[in-house]
Amino acid sequence: MGLKLRKIVIIGAGHVGTMCGLSLMYRGEVDELVYIDIDREKAYSQALDLDDAVSLLPHQITVRTGDYGDAEDADVIVMAAGVSRLPGQTRLDMLDDSIRIMKEVASHMQGLHIPGILISISNPADIVADYLRKQLDLPKNRCFSTGTSLDSCRLRRILSQKMHLDRSSIQAFVMGEHGDSQMIPFSAVHISGKPLLQWMKDDPVRYGKLDLVQIEKETANAGHEVIEGKGSTEFGIGIALSEIVRSIFHDSKKVLPVSPLLEGEYGQYGIHAGVPCIIGKDGIEQVIEISLTDKEKEKFENSCGVIREYISHIS
């Protein structure tokens, strides 16, 4: 019996899809990388450009273009198709264009046997993941979006800068929509095991003046800031995606904030929303329910309400 090679199909060869592939290659988390895009010439050129990089990487990788049939033996499928977010647009403003594209993609995938795990990056992330899971009839553990994983990276960066502490010492998640209604459960933020709120209380001179409302605003606005400056986000989401894939391939059981289908967790039913989850070889193995204050519960419910409202608009 031959060695099982790790095959990843990325649908969408734009900025995000290409950077996801490059991150996976650099981190040694893929053996066969296949690109699918409606613009076949672009997909071919992106794959060829990535393939040139293999010559200087420490491991052999096959990078090529393919078709939707490649999904039938892929370990992971990354949905990165979509239109770029324009300056001033929210992710929800992209809904109509995104669903139009997803309908086209789903028409090619319906009827295929898809044993792998589908991770969606396309915005609006929570709503697209919900749509794809329903259209492709995939189990909830094997179809989810990157959710608030990138937002959580941004939160740790902002906290690190304001507190002058190494971000690897900070444990913090953003929850809810990958969008403007997201929320931060500050009561669950810890630095090296000590609650953030306790740091603020114990050292009021250094940390007591942290403006949590402003931190929440800066975190939610971080994506807009990047879009305004360069037109797309790509590096952060590429690494976030590769970290999720790494936890799947290594069965790491790492807790990461992604957007799964909620069926009673946090009192929410029938929607995808960003929450911490255990990620392993079968995808989402468990949704982790952390304690929230009454105010945090209210903010999370509000964010889920935004997601639910937009799902109801899809025909």
From TrEMBL:
Pathways involved: Fermentation; pyruvate fermentation to lactate; (S)-lactate from pyruvate: step 1/1
**EC identifiers of the protein:** 1.1.1.27
Write down the top EC class of this protein: oxidoreductase
CDD domains documented for this protein:
HicDH_like (cd05291)
Q: Which residue windows are coiled coil?
A: none
Which residues constitute the catalytic centre?
A: H178
Q: Which reaction does it catalyse?
A: (S)-lactate + NAD(+) = pyruvate + NADH + H(+)
A GO cellular-component term linked to this record: cytoplasm
Keywords linked to the UniProt accession: Cytoplasm, NAD, Oxidoreductase
Where does the chain bind substrate?
Answer: R85, R91, N123, P124, A125, D126, D151, S152, C153, R154, T233
Subcellular localization, per the record? Cytoplasm
**UniProt-listed Pfam families:** Ldh_1_C, Ldh_1_N
The protein depicted here goes by the name L-lactate dehydrogenase
Q: Which organism is it from?
A: Anaerostipes caccae (strain DSM 14662 / CCUG 47493 / JCM 13470 / NCIMB 13811 / L1-92)
Q: Taxonomy-wise, where does this protein's organism fall, top ranks first?
A: Bacteria, Bacillati, Bacillota, Clostridia, Lachnospirales
